[in-house]
Amino acid sequence: MTAQVSLTEAQSEALQLLSERTGKTPEELIGEAVHLYLQQNEMERRRAILHRAKGMWKDRTDLPDLREMREEWNRF
Fold it and tell me: What's the CA gap between 9 and 17, in Å, rounded?
């Protein structure tokens, strides 16, 4: 996929300096930055899903008591 990115003058200069320092092209650096951003976003999305699920079974009365199950397992 090809995308056009608009950078400020300061961002463009910083990207060029980083490119020279690392030996990577600006396109490679932008690709890495997008990858890291998406990876972070995915972790935050998963965290939000887990947070929403927290306590979802707390009011259920049809589930076995885990403490009793653990005690039973520990007897063996």
Answer: 12
